[in-house]
What does this fold into?
Amino acid sequence: MHESDNTALYAFRKFGDTVMRCAYACTGSYYEAEDITQEIFLSMHTEQPIFSDDEHMKAWLIRVTVNKCKNLKKSFRFSRTLPIDEKIEQELTCQFTGEENELREMLFKLPEKYSTVMYLYYYEGYNIREIADMMGKNENTVSSLLQRGRKKLKIELEKEGYYARG
It folds into this structure.
């Protein structure tokens, strides 16, 4: 095995689920998320990028995932396809249970610009500066998207019968 084979395989084993969840958060489609995940790790294998550490690798993977999702959403194919089997769509929810799953589903129903930032912040644990770097946006923009996303999510939660705490 070549070193690049080991790097791509290592990255897939360590961050494959993260890439898949991020792609699903951006596209809302299990099938598209699966395709994007495969494309990213194939790209990693062929391009052989160099990483300083695991966090650098994870940040690169998420940045590439977000960019591929944006490109997909601009494509004709994305605007003309529908999920075939909702049961398979739910495979990604197995790691989330109960209220957390409901909250995640509501998060994904927000416009992509909010759901992506909120997903990276709350589920992947990135700070505003790191998200700004990954998405190629200004920190103030990311902060605003996070605040607006929270407000929109709060409104949706209240519509569903959840009440603001404290």
Observations:
- The chain has two domains: 1-95, 96-166.
- The radius of gyration is 17 Å.
- The first helix runs from residue 3 to 27.
- The CA atoms of residues 114 and 144 lie 9 Å apart.
